[in-house]
């Protein structure tokens, strides 16, 4: 399992999801993508994205205005 990072700070919907989708395509099953976002809508977006794609949302949290996500590639 490898861990990759995506900084999507300053990007608005749908860019954080699109960038994450593109990165996840290049990962192996079981790899983890850590995402940092400043878009409040990304909380609902990443939850729905994982439900629709079969990837696993391992964690979703926030530190002030930064939203943090960990997604495991299916």
Describe it for me?
The chain is of the alpha+beta class and 74 residues long. The chain has helices spanning 15-25, 42-53; strands spanning 3-8, 32-37, 56-63, 66-72. The protein has a single domain (3-72), classed as Translation Initiation Factor IF3, CATH 3.30.110.40. A four-stranded mixed beta sheet has the order 1-2-4-3, with helices on one face.
Quick structural overview:
The protein has 74 residues and is of the alpha+beta class.
Keywords:
single chain; 74 residues; alpha+beta; Translation Initiation Factor IF3; four-stranded mixed beta sheet; 4 strands; globular
Using the CA coordinates, give the radius of gyration. Answer: 11 Å
The largest beta-sheet arranges its strands as 1-2-4-3
Helix content: 25-40%
The structure class reads alpha+beta
Counted up, domains total: 1
Main sheet summary: 4 strands, mixed
Question: Number of DSSP helices?
Answer: 2
Q: Estimate the mean pLDDT confidence.
A: 97
Family: Belongs to the sulfur carrier protein TusA family.
Domain UPF0033: 6-30
Pfam families: TusA
Protein name: Sulfurtransferase TusA family protein
């Amino acid at each position: 399992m490898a861990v990759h990072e995506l900084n999507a700070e300053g990007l608005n919907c749908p860019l954080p999801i699109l960038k994450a989708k593109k990165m996840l395509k290049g990962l192996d099953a079981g790899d983890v993508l850590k995402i940092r976002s400043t878009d409040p809508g990304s909380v609902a977006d990443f939850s729905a994205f994982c439900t629709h794609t079969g990837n696993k949302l391992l964690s979703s949290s926030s530190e002030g205005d930064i939203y943090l996500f960990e997604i495991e590639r299916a």
